[in-house]
Amino acid sequence: MNEHSAIPAPEALIADMGARARAAAKVMAQASTETKAAALREAARALRASKKAILDANAADMARGEENGLSAALLDRLKLDPGRIEGIAAALEAVAALPDPVGTVIDRSTPPNGLELSRVRIPLGVIGIIYESRPNVTADAGALCLMAGNAAVLRGGSEAIESSRAIHACLVDGLRAAGLPEDAVQLVPTTDRAAVGAMLRASGLIDIVVPRGGKGLVARVQEEARVPVLSHLDGLCHTYVHAAADPAMARDIAVNAKMRRTGICGAMETLLIDRDFPEPAMLVDALIGAGCEVRGDNAVQQLDDRVKPASAEDWDTEYLEPIVSAAIVVGMEAALDHIARHGSGHTDAIVTDDAEAAAHFLAAVDSAIVMHNASSQFADGGEFGLGAEIGISTGRLHARGPVALEGLTTYKWIARGKGTIRA
User: Do 17 and 186 touch, CB atoms closer than 8 A?
Assistant: First the structure.
């Protein structure tokens, strides 16, 4: 029997899943903090108990990915091992321990009309999440939606389908154990791409869609969506080494920002070196020594004959591999101009011991995350103390930067009167 034989056509499938998710969302919106937390703790327990089954499922995905020629970076995103499974389980427990945003009073006021007004956080409702080859997103996204009182419809990539199914089964175990509706976290059972289109057209069933993936996926979502989208664009992250940067610090940050994990969205893709920085060749040598290919402008090429020439496309490329583009810039304003022209609004960093220069950079760069003397690899909800994240929003509306529990809520106004009528 082929995969699609027992599965309804995509439009009917998503309509059914959306209707069930909407019913579940009504229950989730009223669920207590402890009940939601208990579901996540039980899911974490199930993950640990199912380690062998998850690894076996992941091995099947990895074998298929290698046969299909997935890049090393994508295979790294796809791969699970006992340590990564423990990390996923621990992330579920971390989300369970976070303050519940639902019901939080944002502010209160009493205007001259006598009404007592408050704004109170409430869940978004049904969240559709479309993602590619990272199976941990199944757990992270499901956990965050659940803890914020939402229902989730998850559509993972075909590369990780077996791993995602195994992880999703653990989330369902947790929901069941806590007495919450199993439909609160659903995984689209088909890899048919038409299911993505059906989700994007599910107005009235899905309240918001969050795409997590490459430029092609995000572009399709933005073009076809008939529901609101919380966008996560490319991670074209820059590190600017200012003239007043400490050379050893600059070296360590540049190597870590690029090479710690090259396949994540917070990895540095472009290194900008101030013309007056005293040791530019040292930075290039350190990156090449760490196994990174450096593609540079003419000035960078003159520093080291191992540097390859950078093309016009390199400045706009999210490599997600051990490749970096590098340029010499004439002062802060040139660095800011380069970031404004080529950046994606994700994460950009300055390395400098000049506090005034750092303050100017932090104020002038219009990105979701701006850093001083730190590696862009810290662009992560967990590192920001938010628990797991559903993505890093590079847009301007609703939520920006790492999107965690608070970003998966909206608010409503509550007005209390005392027989108050309007004249």
Answer: yes
Domains of the chain with bracketed CATH? 10-233+395-415 (3.40.605.10), 237-378 (3.40.309.10)
Instruction: For residues 143 and 236, give the distance between their C-alpha atoms in angstroms, rounded to a whole number.
Output: 27
DSSP per-residue string spanning 80-143: --HHHHHHHHHHHHHHHTSPP-TT-EEEEE--TT--EEEEEEEE--EEEEEE-S-THHHHHHHH
3-state secondary structure of 260: coil
Cα distances (angstroms) measured from residue 313 to each of 295, 306, 310, 342: 11, 20, 8, 10
Strands (DSSP E) contained in 98-257 are 105-109, 116-123, 126-131, 151-155, 185-187, 208-212, 237-241
**Side chain identity, residue 225:** A
CB-CB contact of 67 with 109 (8 Å): no
Residue 54: CB atoms within 10 Å: 24
pLDDT attached to residue 5: 53
Query: Distance of CA 347 to CAs 82, 265, 366, 369, 407, Å?
Result: 30, 9, 9, 5, 18
pLDDT of residue 245: 98
Cα–Cα distance, 226 to 212 (Å, whole number)? 18
Tell how far CA 83 is from the center of its chain: 21
**Of 202, 88, 189, residue with least CA distance to 142:** 88
pLDDT of 74: 84
User: For the chain, which residues score pLDDT lower than 70?
Assistant: 1-5, 233
Burial tier of 381 (Cβ tally within 10 Å: 0-12, 13-18, 19+): buried
Instruction: Identify the bridge partners of residue 308 per DSSP, sorted by sequence position.
Output: 295
| Orientation of helix 136-147 relative to helix 82-96, angle to 10° | 10
Enter the pTM of the model. 0.85
What distance in Å separates the CA atoms of residue 256 and residue 261, rounded to the nearest whole number? Answer: 8
How far apart are alpha carbons 348 and 375 in whole angstroms?
A: 9
Phi, psi of 118 (to 5 degrees): -145, 150
CB atoms within 10 A of CB 106: 12
Distance set, CA 180 to CA 113, 126, 156, 174, 284 (Å) = 42, 15, 23, 9, 54
Tokens encoding 319: 């490599």
How far apart are the C-alpha atoms of 239 and 269, rounded to whole Å? 8
